[in-house]
Write a structure and sequence with these properties.
The chain has 544 residues and is mainly beta. It folds into 5 domains: 30-85, Roll (Membrane-bound Lytic Murein Transglycosylase D, Chain A), CATH 3.10.350.10; 91-254, Jelly Rolls (Sandwich); 267-343, Sandwich (Immunoglobulin-like), CATH 2.60.40; 352-435, Immunoglobulin-like; 450-524, Immunoglobulins (Immunoglobulin-like, Sandwich), CATH 2.60.40. Helices cover 9% and strands 44% of the residues. The chain is built from 5 helices and 43 strands. β19 (239-244) and β20 form a beta hairpin. The N and C termini lie far apart (177 Å).
C-alpha cells in the first residue's frame, strides 16, 4: 500500500512541476469536423481516410453514439474531433521580403530569405532593423514579421480532408501582425506562442509583441484568447492586454485611437523625412512604419519616438504609405492611421552659401554648393516666402548668379533647385535677405572752403542719423598723396596744418559698423594772392 502511495505522490509532484506554457498551448478546446457521410461509407473506411490512428474507429463510433455502425445514413453528419485527425504538411509561402531577413531551415542551413520560398515546420526567421517578411499560410492567413523579430514555425499543417489548417508559431521576440483565417473556415486555428503567453485565434486581425519579460496583444478585428500562467482572457476588438512573465494576463483595456494624420504632407521633398503629429492624451510613444504597399506587407522603414515626431532616413523617390500609431504606458499600441505620400527629393537641392541675411548691393552675388550629377540649376528670387511675387526666375549651369536687373530696397527670399537631365528636383529651403543699400555719395559741392591761419575749414550738411563723414584731403583726385584725413559726426571740418594750395576733398558716409558708401570728390582751389601784399612790397621803392 505504501509504495502505491509514494508512487501517486511522485506523480502529483511531477505534474505540478510541468511547464505551465506547455499546458497553455493545449488550453483551447478543439472543435469537431463535420463530415457528411456518402453512400458506401463505413466507420472503418472513414477512419482509414482521416484518423491519425485508423484502428480507433470504435472510439469514433462512441463519440457519435452510433448503435448500428453497418447502417450509416448518407447525408448525415459524422463528427470527428480535429485532435484525432491525420495531418499533412502545408508549407507557408513567402509573399514578400524587404531588407535583411535570415531563414534557418529544419536541417540547420541558414541563408537570406527569398520571396516565393516554401517554409516547413521547424523553420526559424529573423528580421534585422528596417526589414520585414510576409508569409501566407494554407488557410489564407497572412503574417507580417516586423523589424527586429525572431519567429519559429512550430506547426504548419492541414488536416486530412482539406480546408482545416493548424498553424502554431513561436514568437521568441519582436512583433507580428496577423490577419488570420480570412475565409472563416471552420476548424482552422492559429496560435502565437511567446515566452510568457499564448494567443489563440480562429478568424481575426491582431498584433502580438514579445520580449523576455512580457507579451502584448492588440486585437484589431474579432476576438483573441490570450493565455498565460493557466489563466485566459478574451480580448475583443479594439482592446489589448499585457501578460508579464509568470503572471496571468491583465484585464483588457481600450486601445488608443489612431493619431490625427490629416496635417501630414502629401509630398515630401527633403531627406531625412520628418512627420510631426499632434499630441495625444495617454500616449507615451509613437511608432511609424513606411511600406511600398497600402496593405503594409512590404515594410521598408520603421521609427519609434517618445515625442510625436517621426524621422526616416533615405528611400528612393516614389509613392509610399506611412502607418502611425501611439502606445500607452503599458506599451500597448493603438489604432493605425494610414497616410499616403510621395517622396520627390532628387536631384537633391543645393546648399545656399551666400549672401547672408543683409545685402548691400542692388545686384547681389547669389552662391550655392555643387550637387553631384546636376547639370544646371534654377534660381528664384521673390518678395514673399510663398514665391507668389517673383522678381527673378533664371537658370544657370554655374553655382553662382548675379541678377541682371537691380533690386529695389526691401526684403526678399531666394531658393535654388538642381536639374539633372530633364528632371528638376525640389527647391532648397528658401533663405531670406534684406537689400539695404549702401549710403549714397554725399553732397559736398555747396560747402565754401576757407583757408585761414594755416588751416582749411568748411561745413557740410549734417549726416543722416547713425552715419558720420569720413574725410580726406589729398593733392590728387585718386587720394594717393594725402595731406590730411579725419571724420566728422556733424559735418564740420577743420584741417590743419594745411597750406593754401589747390587740393582735393573726398568725403563719404560711414555707418556705425564701418560700412561705407562711395566717395564724393571735389577740387578746392587755393585763393589768389592779396594785392595789398604786393603794394607793401613796393613801399620801400616808392620812398627812394
Amino acid at each position: 500500500m505504501l509504495p502505491r502511495t509514494l508512487l501517486l505522490l511522485a506523480l502529483l509532484l511531477a505534474m505540478a512541476a510541468a511547464p505551465v506554457a506547455a499546458a497553455d498551448t493545449k488550453s483551447e478546446a478543439m472543435p469537431d469536423w463535420h463530415y457528411t457521410l456518402r453512400p458506401g461509407d463505413t466507420l472503418i473506411g472513414v477512419s482509414a481516410r482521416f484518423l491519425a490512428r485508423p484502428a480507433e474507429w470504435p472510439r469514433l463510433q462512441r463519440h457519435n453514439r452510433i448503435t448500428q455502425p453497418r447502417r450509416l445514413i448518407p447525408g448525415s453528419a459524422l463528427l470527428i474531433p480535429l485532435d484525432w485527425m491525420r495531418q499533412q504538411p502545408a508549407p507557408a509561402t513567402v509573399m514578400a521580403v524587404r531588407g535583411q531577413v535570415r531563414v534557418m531551415h529544419p536541417d540547420s542551413t541558414e541563408r537570406a530569405l527569398q520571396a516565393d520560398e516554401k517554409l516547413l515546420a521547424g523553420t526559424v526567421l529573423t528580421t534585422a532593423a528596417n526589414s520585414s517578411a510576409t508569409l501566407r499560410f494554407a488557410d489564407g492567413s497572412v503574417l507580417v514579421l516586423q523589424p527586429g523579430a525572431r519567429l519559429a514555425l512550430d506547426t504548419v499543417s492541414v488536416y486530412a480532408g482539406g480546408g482545416m489548417v493548424d498553424t502554431r508559431l513561436r514568437l521568441q521576440h519582436g512583433r507580428v501582425e496577423i490577419g488570420a483565417n480570412p475565409a472563416r473556415a471552420r476548424g482552422s486555428r492559429l496560435q502565437v506562442i511567446t515566452p510568457s503567453a499564448v494567443a489563440a485565434v480562429r478568424g481575426t486581425r491582431f498584433r502580438v509583441g514579445a520580449d523576455a519579460s512580457a507579451t502584448r496583444e492588440e486585437t484589431l478585428e474579432g476576438r483573441v484568447g490570450l493565455v498565460a500562467s493557466g489563466r485566459q482572457v478574451t480580448v475583443p476588438e479594439g482592446q489589448g492586454s499585457l501578460a508579464e512573465l509568470g503572471k496571468p494576463p491583465r484585464p483588457p483595456v481600450t486601445l488608443l485611437p489612431a493619431p490625427d494624420a490629416s496635417a501630414l504632407p502629401a509630398r515630401v521633398e527633403t531627406l531625412p523625412m520628418r512627420f510631426k503629429l499632434p499630441e495625444q492624451p495617454g500616449a507615451v510613444s509613437w511608432l511609424g512604419q513606411i511600406a511600398e504597399d497600402a496593405q503594409f506587407e512590404k515594410l521598408v522603414l520603421e521609427d519609434t519616438a517618445t515625442a510625436p515626431q517621426l524621422s526616416f532616413a533615405d528611400l528612393p523617390d516614389g509613392r509610399y504609405a506611412l502607418r502611425v500609431r501611439a502606445a500607452d504606458a503599458q506599451g500597448l499600441q493603438g489604432r493605425d492611421a494610414i497616410h499616403a505620400f510621395e517622396l520627390d527629393a532628387r536631384p537633391f537641392a543645393p546648399l545656399l552659401t551666400a549672401p547672408g541675411t543683409r545685402v548691400r548691393h542692388a545686384r547681389p552675388d547669389l552662391q550655392w554648393s555643387t550637387v553631384v550629377g546636376a547639370s544646371a540649376y534654377q534660381v528664384e528670387v521673390a518678395r514673399d516666402a510663398a514665391f507668389a511675387d517673383k522678381v527673378l526666375a533664371e537658370g544657370t549651369s554655374d553655382t553662382r548668379l548675379i541678377p541682371t536687373k537691380e533690386l529695389q530696397p526691401g526684403g526678399y527670399h531666394w531658393r535654388v533647385a538642381s536639374i539633372e537631365a530633364a528632371d528638376q528636383g525640389p527647391y532648397s529651403p528658401a533663405r531670406p535677405f534684406t537689400y539695404d543699400p549702401l549710403p549714397g555719395a554725399p553732397e559736398i559741392n555747396l560747402a565754401a572752403p576757407v583757408f585761414a591761419n594755416n588751416a582749411l575749414t568748411l561745413t557740410l550738411p549734417p549726416p543722416p542719423a547713425g552715419l558720420h563723414y569720413e574725410l580726406v584731403l589729398a593733392r590728387d583726385a585718386e587720394r594717393t598723396q594725402i595731406i590730411w584725413q579725419g571724420s566728422s559726426s556733424d559735418g564740420r571740418l577743420q584741417a590743419s596744418p594745411v597750406e593754401p594750395a589747390n587740393c582735393y576733398l573726398a568725403a563719404r558716409l560711414v555707418e556705425a559698423d564701418g560700412t561705407a558708401g562711395p566717395y564724393a570728390t571735389r577740387m578746392i582751389e587755393a585763393p589768389p594772392p592779396s594785392p595789398w601784399g604786393l603794394l607793401l612790397l613796393l613801399l620801400p621803392l616808392l620812398a627812394i
